[in-house]
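Field reference: sequence -> structure
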Amino acid sequence: MTTTAVRPKSTYRTVNPASGEVVKDWGILDDAQAEAALARAHEAFLSWRWVPIEEKATLFRRVADLIEARVDDLGRQTTLEMGKPLVQAVGEAGLCAGMFRYYADRAADLLADEVVELPGMARTVVRREPLGVVLGIEPWNAPLFQAMRAAVPNLMVGNTVMVKPANICAGSTLMFDDLFAHAGFPQGAYQTVLATRDQVSGYIANPLVRAVTLTGSDEAGALVGELAGRHIKPVVLELGGSDAFIVLDSADVAKAAATAATCRLIIGGQACALPKRVIVTDKVADEFIAQYVEAFRSQVIGDPFDPATTVGPLSSAGAVEDLQAQYQDAVERGATVLEPGGRMDGPGFFFKPAVLTGITPDMRLYHEEAFGPLGLIFRVPDTDSAIKVANDTKYGLGGTVFTEDPAEGEYVARRLDTGGVGINAWLGAPMEIPFGGTKASGVGRELGPTGMDYFANIKTYAIA
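Structure field:
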């Protein structure tokens, strides 16, 4: 009698969230392939680190050109894999091209030696040098942008990069391997690795991997941070968020309501940096709530490839189940439903946008991140009460405050325990400024003028 080996179930699989149908099984690396990928990355580093900035910038601009030529293909793959409306996915691809151009144009200044006057020394300079191979562990909600947010600054410093994508978005991230090759990057400088959890742990433990960056849940961040710390490696963790959107007495209510609703519903509400809790003072609460709820009510839910759709499916069946459980828990514990919603019947992973108020500390939604199109409104009497509610969370990624009083805006911004604050606008994560959070939202910063420092050896040269 003969037996047939059973092929292990892949952890990298594209499932169309609009239909629930399996589109492609991407397979998974075996241990030999995982080791070979790391060897290629290290071998590439030995030469890439010495490539002049001007040559790197030329290659970066080629990648930007290639992205712009294939922006529709990149967008379609992302929409197919995680369900965001196509226009948003195409916009994400465009941001990646912009990131390459930003660092190509500014790297010479960002990486310039800093001259320091030091007594007894004729010349002292501080220089940023590459470390080696950097491992990026990236999420599904913006698979193109997140992968490049890890890769682009590191490649410009002179590191090489391996990106482990989310298991549902392998196809989106793999498209970059082809773009880098066509642009003329050396083999191994950038690689998408379809690694197992054990292989990722092995990478972090391996001396050839010199640093780790992760965007994901605070639970995942704690595990990766612990392992990186055990092996004395720098780590940047960009984790969850439950950002506050504060609307005060003097706010432009119409602008605030439109901005808050847009920010809560883009990508189906599935991003750590999107404001999830609206905190509005009593004086303007009724006016704000009416406009905010109407914005939720007017959304078009459906096929993310349909130009009329404004909210597509959530990323997976599990995402719908988790959000539905949070929603149901709040309703059962007495939350007021301002706009009903929830899991929708039929194929795909759809959740009708909903708005709740009356959220209390005994409800899961008071403490947990709501990853989906669920608006939460907290009414407060005044500015200091708004600050207190905003900071009453384990997260500290970002925040937003709307007020026509500049001094009041500054007062609130200085008191929010977060990594960033937008006054009369949502800040988000623009590539020109550092991005990251406090508390359970993570450690370290990505992007901006300091984004390269976390994965550089900041070395001092002193000549007597």
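Note: The first strand starts at residue 13 and ends at 16.
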